[in-house]
Amino acid sequence: MKANYFTYYLQQQTKIASLVVFRMFFGIMMFASIVRFWANGWIEELYLQPKFHFKYYFFSWVQPLGNYTYLLFILCALSAICIAVGYKYKLSTSVFFLSFLYIELMDKTTYLNHYYFISILSFLMIFLPANANFSLDAYKNKKIYNTVPKWSVDSIKFLLGIVYFYAGLAKLNSDWLFRAMPLKIWLPSKYDIPLLGNTVMQQEWFHYAMSWSGMLYDLTIPFFLLYKRTRIYAFVVVVIFHVFTRVLFPIGMFPFIMIISTLIFFEASFHQKIITTIKKIFNITTYQFTIIENYRFSAVKKRITHTVLAVFMILQLLFPFRNLLYPGELFWTEQGFRFSWRVMLMEKAGNTTFKVVNTKTNAFFYVDNKDFLTSFQEKQMSFQPDFILEYAHFLGDHFKNQGHKNIAIYADSFVALNGRLSTRFVDKTINLYAEKESFAHKKWILPFTSEIKIKGI
Q1: Does residue 442 fall inside a structural domain?
Q2: Which end of the chain has fewer CB atoms surrounding its CB within 10 Å, N or C?
Q3: In angstroms, rounded to a whole number, what is the distance separating the alpha carbons of residues 36 and 33?
């Protein structure tokens, strides 16, 4: 019965307008994001100025391209425009995905949840027939399709639902719900906001209200968006929530990307009105096109697409739970923290210094991190274990190449988490230069001395 229902679902069709509008808005938003990144000077600051770049495991080969890095961003921006207008769509989405992914892999220091979201969303879009109507590809072929497989629209909704729901699950912890952390730390810097800042926001109840409402919002908003009767009200809440968080926190384009993306939940008739309006503005006609009712994949293409996306979606469902494979407090060790929709859950600050020791003579000296890292890199390195280990290996290799012998690297590290007192983070007796990066538990991280109760994911 279940197999029959699944087969029936895969054969269902839906109006293509939702997918077309999503394609256009996605391309425009990505182009705007890249232009903003360039205009703020972040290409130079984050990729060209640093002497050293932190790498994801297995991706140490991904390096900034010098001044050619600007060409990489140009390629990414141009492919975003091509996605928006539907020009050579499959190639454009593939180029955007690969160029954007390369940009993100160049330095782990720049990791943000919404960058990861854009990466996986652009990968998904490679397989969707979003150019089958109202695109330059359709204009060239003189052929448009009215409907597409329903799963092609639902897959985007599903991905958005995962982002929201998992972010809500992650907030089911005692720091967020019962200590209002880290909002209690962040909100005081916003007390100068007109009206709310010097009155309501200074009240402790407001900190808890923000924490609990944020959790409830993330857990429920996908379902309210799915239900037709509550959809419009849910979208208003989406707009208010993301605009408010944008005012409070420096989270870039993410609120706008999420607002625009949630339009996918509206009926196809709503999106058709958007398309009709655009046609009127630019005087676009389609009367000379061949109209085909249903877009269908070939048998081989269907089999490949269904298999790839099934594996992709299962991975998205399971990957955020990989932290359960590790002992210790997740917020402390951060093993399994990234790529799991834990959005703005902790305020962590550290101070980590490194000692280079000659194991034969016991002679040693301390490293000035500013000789090798930017201030932003040093801040991120100081409390993230994989950064600390990678930097220790960089230092060992650097001084070895300078002629130093019998090198051992020790870290003296103190970290404060969510308003707690700073405590020792790394076992200072462990030679980090002898430790290897892997997916195994990092035993040289000292145990968390406090406790965070209740676990979501």
Answers
A1: no
A2: N
A3: 5
How confident is the model over 289-307, as pLDDT tens digits? Answer: 788 888 988 899 999 999 9
Answer yes or no: pTM beyond 0.85: yes
Q: 142: domain range?
A: 11-322
Q: Residue 141 and residue 132: Cα distance in Å, rounded?
A: 10
Contact 100, 34 (CB under 8 A): no
Residues 270 and 376 in one domain: no
Q: How many residues belong to the chain?
A: 457
Tell me how many domains the chain contains. 2
Nearest to 99 by CA among 53, 37, 159, 21: 37
Among candidate residues 295, 322, 349, the one where a domain is terminated: 322
Q: What is the rounded radius of gyration, in angstroms, for the C-alpha atoms of the chain?
A: 25
413 to 89, 375, 416, 446: CA distances (angstroms): 49, 17, 10, 10
Return all residues near 41 (Cβ < 8 A) that are at least 6 apart.
none
Look at residue 160 and tell me if it is in a domain.
yes
* Separation between Cα atoms, residue 57 and residue 427, nearest integer Å: 22
Residue 135, pLDDT score: 94
Same structural domain, 308 and 345: no
* Residue 301 shares a structural domain with residue 372: no
Pairing of strands 423-424, 407-417: antiparallel
CB neighbours of 330 closer than 8 A, spacing ≥ 6? 323, 336, 337
CA 340 vs. chain centroid, Å, equals 9
